[in-house]
């Protein structure tokens, strides 16, 4: 159970990056659809649990150290090649969003130039990638419960200090910018791009466990924790939409309203999650091309880090809206392939029995 919890915690830590924990992603994919966004959160929970279980089990069954083996296994030579390219591109794209998010957080918390905040995150990420994968997984998993506690405190405060009716909140929420055409598509797109981005490390995490049931349980636990966080953050921003509408970092703004100290704690949690995601994404991206024990691994990490920093200068909110929605539509191909692989596996089990 301990290993399952570690995989689940790392899964959450990987995906709950800048846009998720800050509330920016949840605002665009759930809250902007009003009360229907809560139903979208439930759908996302179920989808995350199923896909997390399947990917972790595939990684465990194939005992892989990179996503490449699993992707070619489930997609074949041609579809596998396309999915491999998409996932590799997503890994880099999400890490770039984390760098931009760090810049926004440092700016909103301390008034520091966003570029300086991004540079700090880039340096930390590069330094961490010189550790081995097990140390990285431990680092990613440890911050998850801390964030969940902070989010829960903000939710309770928001519910008890709500100044508008649910009807008014619903109207204001629906006036916010959305990253999808409707609430159902918003939930599917959200799951799609997160799985596309998180699949690589989830497969690698599954590959560290020989028992596929343990790996699968970890994927399910991670999916449920993600779903709970989505629903909590969504509800929190919905009841305080008059305060957080239009903010780059909505949850940080709510935390600061409770008390400046809570704002600092939330800022630390946000930076921790961005760090988690940046490390996980850049590690998975780099090992796709260079083995961790290869002599050019370190120079490659530094080079990719600098490229990521340059790309992050586009801006946080812009990147969340553009990069993630594009990833979401392309990620549907991966989800369909995963579902087909799961059905195929079930048929094989039935045939054997």
From TrEMBL:
The chain crosses the membrane at residues 33-58, 78-102, 114-132, 139-160, 180-206, 218-241, 261-284, 296-317, 323-343. Keywords: Membrane, Transmembrane, Transmembrane helix. This is Membrane protein. The keyword Transmembrane applies.
């Amino acid at each position: 159970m301990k290993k399952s919890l570690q995989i689940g915690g790392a899964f959450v830590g990987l995906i709950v990056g800048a846009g998720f924990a800050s509330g920016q992603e949840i605002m665009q994919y759930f809250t902007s659809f009003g009360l229907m966004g809560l139903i979208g959160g439930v759908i996302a929970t179920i989808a995350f649990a199923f896909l997390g279980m399947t990917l972790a089990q595939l990684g465990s069954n194939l005992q892989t150290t990179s996503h490449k083996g699993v992707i070619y296994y489930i997609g074949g030579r041609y579809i596998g090649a396309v999915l491999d390219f998409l996932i590799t591109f997503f890994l880099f794209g999400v890490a770039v969003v984390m760098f931009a998010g760090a810049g926004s957080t440092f700016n909103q918390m301390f008034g520091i130039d966003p570029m300086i905040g991004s540079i700090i995150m880039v340096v930390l990420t590069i330094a961490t990638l010189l550790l081995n994968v097990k140390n990285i997984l431990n680092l990613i998993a440890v911050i998850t419960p801390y964030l969940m506690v902070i989010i829960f405190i903000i939710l309770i405060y928001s519910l008890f200090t709500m100044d508008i009716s649910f009807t008014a909140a619903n109207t204001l929420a629906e006036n916010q910018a959305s990253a999808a055409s409707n609430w159902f598509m918003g939930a599917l797109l959200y799951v799609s791009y997160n799985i596309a981005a998180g699949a690589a490390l989830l497969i690698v995490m599954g590959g560290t466990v020989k028992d596929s049931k343990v790996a699968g349980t970890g994927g399910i636990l991670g999916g449920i924790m993600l779903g709970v966080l989505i629903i909590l953050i969504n509800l929190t921003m919905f009841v305080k939409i008059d305060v957080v509408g239009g903010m780059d970092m909505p949850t940080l703004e709510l935390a600061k309203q409770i008390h400046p100290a809570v704002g600092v704690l939330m800022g630390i949690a946000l930076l921790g999650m961005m760090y988690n995601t940046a490390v996980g994404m850049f590690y998975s991206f780099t090992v796709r091309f260079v083995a961790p024990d290869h002599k050019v691994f370190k120079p490659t990490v530094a080079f990719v880090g600098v490229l990521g920093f340059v790309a992050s200068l586009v801006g946080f909110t812009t990147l969340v809206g553009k990069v993630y929605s594009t990833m979401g539509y392309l990620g549907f191909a991966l989800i369909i392939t995963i579902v087909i692989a799961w059905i195929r596996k079930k048929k094989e089990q039935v045939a054997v029995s």
